Amino acid sequence: MSSNFPPPSSNYLPTYIVTEKEQKGWNKNLKYRFLVILFYDTIKFGGLSGKQGEVHNQFRFGFREEDIMNRSAKNSAVIAAGAFILLILFILHGIPLFNGIVISFKDYNMMKGISGSPFTGLENISRLFETINFRRVLINTVRLNMLYLVMVLVLGCLLSVSLMTVQKRIRNIFLTIILIPLFIPGSILAHICIFSFQGTNALLSPQTFPFIYAFLLAVKNAGIPTVLILKTWGTAKGREEKTGFEKLMAPVAFVLIQLASILSTDADILTNLINPLVYENADTLDHFTYKMGF
User: Fold this and answer.
1) Rounded alpha-carbon distances, angstroms, from residue 251 to 40, 146, 197, 254, 256
2) Any idea of the CA torsion for 260, 262, 266, 269, to the nearest 10 degrees?
3) Which residues partner with 106 through β-bridges?
4) Span 59-103, pLDDT tens digits
5) Roughly what angle, to the nearest 10 degrees, separates helices 168-179 and 134-163?
6) Considering the entire predicted model, what is its pTM?
7) pLDDT in tens, 178-233
8) pLDDT digits (tens, 9 = 90+) for 276-291
């Protein structure tokens, strides 16, 4: 009587021909790949254990138990680093945001501080909505941010596509250069811009000022979408082809993040570049409320 089981042998390593499609699917998730191996060996070969099982898994799929532990340790390090970054962002942005919300409901007095200033309710907000220029500055704020969003996405996509064609070492060098403006204060970039346009009327024209501001802010933040797009689209040779949805994940995520702050502008850049001649198209909510004193 014939049997489907292989002849017993201590040196026997059962093999399974894995198609390219199956291999790509298993590579996406290490846990799923491990469960498939365990299930297949248990059903067809009665399972492998000990050194033979370890060699078997390494021979067929290129990983060992130590690899799984190393991957788990790396994931823990990434989670810890992400939690630390979120804590720093909360301290630098969350606390000032909370204080700004509290101040908007008070008649702020520097001598008394936030807690000692008298509570005024919605008086400040009502005064802002009733101002004749509120609609204009609101439209200017949205227009400037949408113009910046288009420029930074186009710049990020162009840089990403260009960097995909170069070697990894050169790509890392250019990525570092692209990310440098992100850590330069906006006031310094604004003064560089003023020096560059010295002797021209570019910063005095209401038509050209919005484009200059949006382009300067796009240059400052272009490194963020560039890195996101590079990581999402994939730059390593031999990687599986990304679908259209996967390629759009990074740009869409960046757009959603930017839309969350569509009513705010870069105060460092704007306050150093703006002048009364361009208030018609460049006065924003941040600058307008700053002039009003709250």
Assistant:
1) 40, 14, 31, 5, 9
2) 150
3) 119
4) 444 444 555 556 666 667 778 877 888 888 788 778 887 888 888
5) 160
6) 0.64
7) 999 989 999 999 999 999 998 888 899 989 999 999 999 999 999 988 988 888 77
8) 899 988 899 888 887 8
Please state the three-class secondary structure of the chain as a single string. CCCCCCCCCCCCCCCCCCCHHHHHHHHCCHHHHHHHHHHHHHHHHCCCCHHHHHHHHHHHHCCCHHHHHHHHHHHHHHHHHHHHHHHHHHHHHHHHHHHHHHHCCECCECCCHHHHCCECCCHHHHHHHCCCCHHHHHHHHHHHHHHHHHHHHHHHHHHHHHHCCCCHHHHHHHHHHHHHHHHCCHHHHHHHHHHHCCCCCHHHCCCCHHHHHHHHHHHHHCHHHHHHHHHHHCCCCCCCCCCHHHHHHHHHHHHHHHHCCCCCCCHHHHHHHCCHHHHHHHCCHHHHHHHHCC
Q: How confident is the model at residue 214, as a pLDDT? A: 94
